[in-house]
């Protein structure tokens, strides 16, 4: 319980520090960090929920509602960055002019999404949720399980989030645009965040596996972003896009192929029998063969 309390406290503190910078909207990085903190807070509440007694109004689902507002705004930031910094500089002037409408639409969508984000961060529901978590931290309540020592239960705290990870259908798809890859990315992200919460007890092999999960998440995220960008271009009115924007779509195909090949190479290594067997043994032995860095 005390360990869970510290994880929650760490993210609540970061959310408070980031709020003003996000609302100032001068740099996209604070919004990215806020999004990550909300996700890590959600993970801590999900993972260690059986150890803590939180106020009834505090729930992972309420945090998820705010996180969705940050996700939309952040996704548009990523699309704008990719267009402005990675794609437009490589295009001929004619294609740049053809994309002016799409860029304006992205800007409008982003402004609208940011308005929704401001509303969410100022909402009484979100502010009360943070206030109640602050009060709980001053006088935390733990369940009987939360009063137990953490180390003998480490395998149990990670098991719900890593079990069945390799059974996800996304591992076997052959289409880089398959929706199953987006679902797999979410599963990988949850497993990674869960294990990062337990990093003080992870040995070198598990730490390396966590890094592999991060890279897998990155490659799948890039593929997903490219799908969103293609959809945005289609919706912007470029109905003859392949004819009118040949250089752009050639570049998008190159980027998709690069990330797909990197993902395929990494996924085959992760799926190898020897790798899976080793990781499963390490997860079951978590904390038994190493002294923790924290208590």
Structural class assignment = mainly alpha
Topology as H/E string?
A: HHHHHHHHHHHH
Alpha-carbon distance between the two ends: 12 Å
CA radius of gyration is 22 Å
Q: How many runs of DSSP E, i.e. beta strands?
A: 0
Q: What is the subunit arrangement here? A: single chain
> Number of helix segments?
12
Mass-distribution shape: flat
Q: Stretches where pLDDT falls below 50 for ≥5 residues?
A: none
Structure, explained:
- With 295 residues, the chain is an all-alpha fold.
- The chain is flat and about 65 Å long.
- The protein has helices at 2-24, 28-47, 60-87, 93-98, 100-122, 124-138, 154-162, 179-197, 204-235, 241-244, 246-271, 273-284.
- It has 12 helices and no strands.
- It starts with a helix and ends in an 11-residue tail after the last helix.
Which descriptors would you attach to this protein?
mainly alpha; single chain; 295 residues
Short description:
Helices cover 74% and strands 0% of the residues.
Give the helix/strand layout.
Blueprint: H1 2-24, H2 28-47, H3 60-87, H4 93-98, H5 100-122, H6 124-138, H7 154-162, H8 179-197, H9 204-235, H10 241-244, H11 246-271, H12 273-284
Helix pairs in contact: 1-2, 1-6, 2-3, 2-8, 3-5, 7-8, 8-9, 9-11
């Amino acid at each position: 319980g005390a360990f869970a309390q510290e994880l929650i406290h760490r993210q609540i503190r970061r959310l408070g520090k980031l709020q003003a910078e996000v609302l100032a909207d001068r740099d996209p990085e604070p919004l990215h960090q806020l999004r990550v903190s909300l996700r890590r807070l959600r993970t801590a509440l999900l993972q260690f929920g059986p150890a803590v007694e939180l106020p009834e109004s505090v729930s992972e689902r309420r945090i998820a509602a705010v996180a969705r507002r940050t996700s939309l705004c952040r996704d548009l930031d990523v699309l704008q960055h990719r267009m402005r910094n990675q794609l437009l500089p490589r295009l001929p002037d004619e294609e740049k002019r053809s994309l002016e409408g799409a860029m304006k639409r992205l800007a409008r969508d982003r402004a609208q999404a940011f308005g929704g984000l401001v509303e969410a961060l100022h909402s009484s529901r979100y502010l009360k949720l943070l206030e109640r978590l602050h009060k709980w931290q001053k006088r935390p309540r733990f369940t009987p399980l939360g009063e137990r020592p953490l180390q003998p239960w480490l395998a149990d705290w990670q098991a719900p989030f890593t079990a069945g990870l390799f059974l996800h259908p996304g591992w076997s798809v052959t289409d880089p645009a398959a929706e199953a890859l987006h679902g797999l990315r979410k599963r990988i992200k949850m497993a990674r965040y869960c294990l990062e919460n337990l990093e003080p007890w992870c040995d070198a092999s598990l730490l390396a596996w966590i890094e592999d999960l991060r890279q897998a998440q990155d490659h799948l995220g890039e593929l997903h972003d490219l799908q969103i960008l293609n959809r945005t271009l289609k919706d912007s009115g470029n109905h003859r896009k392949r004819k009118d924007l040949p250089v752009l779509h050639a570049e998008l195909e190159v980027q998709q192929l690069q990330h797909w090949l990197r993902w395929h190479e990494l996924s085959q290594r992760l799926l190898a029998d020897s790798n899976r067997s080793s990781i499963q043994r390490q997860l079951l032995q978590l904390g038994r063969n190493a002294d923790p860095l924290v208590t």
